[in-house]
Design brief:
2 copies of one chain form a homodimer. Chain A is of the alpha/beta class. In chain A, about 40% of the residues lie in helices and about 20% in strands. Chain A has 2 domains: about 1-265, Queuine tRNA-ribosyltransferase-like (TIM Barrel, Alpha-Beta Barrel); about 270-365, no CATH class. In chain A, the strands form 4 sheets. An 8-stranded parallel beta sheet of chain A has the order 4-14-13-12-11-10-6-5. In chain A, α10 runs antiparallel to α15. The longest helix of chain A is centred in the C-terminal third of the chain and has 27 residues, at about 325-350. In chain A, β10 (about 140), α7 and β11 form a beta-alpha-beta unit. At the A-B interface, α13 and α14 of A face α13 and α14 of B.
Chain lengths: ~375, ~375
């Protein structure tokens, strides 16, 4: 396991690198599709591989509840369970506990909550989060953190910072497997001094990579970017940086610009199932009546199966009929779009054209497309 | 377009042949996957082609309502709309009108009903059914028929027989396109004299193929097989015969044995989405707890992608989590299973081992599998 930084843009923080993991060489910046329940919704692993993805995400919280991490361990681990030969990153369950679980009680020891499946009392601690992730067997695992709500006050954010540092120490102590990378997570909400403090405390633990948590959780965008910039300023150059939960095309470009290497988000896959697709010209809502008889592809510059074979009229029909194939084809396209976007970003960083490419993209996407005449 | 009968079993009515259509040579007996709304649910056309299917079905009733047959015509027809290069058969809408539509009024002229989408008053007549099917552009189209309910009385069944003959004449009169085969449909419920009368009246119209409708619609199996046998006895040897709505593995074998060449049914795809899968050893309900930690494939003798890559434990997990990938993988397997079943049946007919093969299959499937110990 090794992270090699190949190039940093001269007039921004944008970086290009390679993350060498046992099962994959991941070119960064990279977007990681989210496979919550050991499946990237609507996709086979063959299709993900075909799109060029080599690193996907799975959720500790959901998999520990069902089918259970020990079941997956006994079946040979998560890679084998879902037939994915490349790399996996598992989150720690922290974010889900704080966003989904009911009847939650948080102490320095950990979190007790009620299972959304059967109402059972469940405890998640740093030690248990590591145990689950060792059972699942991902290549990169995450520290158990406290994620404070978007735009919360300084006192609440400070408590989350302190606990997240405390819990990282316990995660490192609990960790047994040598073949997994444990990333620490920086918290601190939108409070820049707290972000700096958290970054320093987490970096002091000398992790092989660092995640930025607690952003894109409801705070205004205008407060998110300064918080992100504060963190990346305090992270070491030679370790990968992972911005959790970010995934619109525009936000990916801005995140790369501020020095992020890895991203994940359910948005590209979830929005696809809701009929929202990315194109070079901006967001398209496939349900709109203007697509009803449109024989053209979603995006004429895209070479994915969806754009090669199917018209907007057919895709709209599938979506309006709630057909599984509609979910498949729109998901495939959104993931193809992000994969190409990240490859282009990397190329631009490596050949010195990053700022120009970045500005072109961000300008393009500020024009909404659905209302334009002559769209084919 | 040509139907070539290659072999008829000496001690049963089982037949093997080839249906030569402009876009495909279809080996019979054949099962046709149902693509109700211009998509075989959960599957791409690439996957169907990969499984060996060359003839699929689509529904006139559903497609005329949404997106509309004229929309599909203007987009280049159904083949292009759904990116399927091989053959398509469309039903006439008759079955759906009689099973799905509300506020229905039937006269000799046709059927008036309320659209389930928007409540609009819609009229379907033999002429309109042909117009829709000519707009859709399938290779084989069906006459508009009246399908009497399963096990209905003789008077009701007789009226359906009379109307179905009357309507076939009007369909033939209305038909304009030369590149589509129009199949007549035999009705008559479970009443053997009516079945004989209907078969004779329909055959008198000299269609290129004949369908058997109004079976597998709720009548007891013990009454279905004699009705089917009566019909096939009165159909010409040199035309393909299509038993509508039949699709369990056992019923397919029995249908072949009575001289049927083509079948369609939503059951293999619908049941897959409900977690019910076909295996060599019988039906498996993937939700059953016995599969929770089972590392083995659904069917160790099956070479489909689902059986090659995934364990029963994973498939159960996907199904329990209502994941789209679960629907995909189980649908893929059920369709792979039926494709192999039909290929084996054809092989057995051609090499003279039909009755032996048939009896082996029917015996196997009478043992329920889920309860057996040692299932892997």
């Amino acid at each position: 396991m090794k992270f090699e930084l190949l190039s940093t843009d001269s007039s921004s923080r944008a970086r290009a690198g390679t993350l060498a993991l046992p099962r994959a060489a991941v070119e960064t910046p990279a977007f990681m599709p989210v496979g919550t329940r050991a499946t990237v919704k609507a996709m086979t692993t063959d299709e993900l591989e075909g799109l060029g993805y080599r690193l996907i995400l799975a959720n500790t919280f959901h998999l520990a509840l069902r089918p259970g991490d020990e079941v997956i361990r006994d079946l040979g681990g998560l890679h084998r369970f879902q037939a994915w030969p490349h790399a996996i990153l598992t989150d720690s369950g922290g974010f889900q506990v704080f966003s989904l679980a009911e009847l939650r009680r948080v102490t320095d020891h950990g979190v007790v909550f009620q299972s959304p499946l059967d109402g059972d009392r469940i405890e998640l601690t740093p030690e248990r989060a590591i145990e689950i992730q060792e059972n699942l067997g991902a290549d990169i695992i995450m520290a158990f953190d406290e994620c404070s709500p978007g735009g919360c006050g300084e006192r609440e954010a400070e408590q989350a910072v302190a606990r997240t540092t405390l819990w990282l120490h316990r995660c490192l102590e609990a960790k047994r497997r040598e073949d997994q990378w444990l990333f620490g997570i920086v918290q601190g909400g939108i409070h820049l001094p707290l972000r700096e403090r958290s970054a320093k405390e987490i970096v002091a633990c000398d992790c092989p990579g660092y995640a930025i948590g607690g952003l894109s959780v409801g705070e205004p965008k205008a407060q998110m970017w300064p918080a992100l910039e504060t963190v990346t300023t305090h992270l070491p150059e030679n370790r990968p940086r992972y911005l959790m939960g970010v995934g619109t095309p525009g936000d990916l470009v801005r995140g790369i610009d501020l020095g992020v290497d890895l991203f994940d988000c359910v948005l590209p896959t979830r929005n696809a199932r809701n009929g929202q697709v990315f194109t070079r010209q901006g967001i398209v809502q496939i349900r709109h009546a203007c697509h009803r008889t449109d024989p053209g592809p979603l995006d004429s510059s895209c070479s994915c199966e969806t754009c090669r074979l199917y018209s907007r009229a057919y895709l709209r029909h599938l979506h309006q009929s709630n057909e599984i194939l509609g979910h498949r084809l729109l998901t495939l396209h959104n993931l193809a779009f992000l994969r190409v976007l990240m490859a282009e970003a990397r190329h631009a960083i490596l050949d010195g054209s990053w700022t120009q490419w970045r500005d072109e993209k961000l300008t393009q996407w500020e024009t909404p497309v659905d209302s334009l005449p002559g769209e084919a």
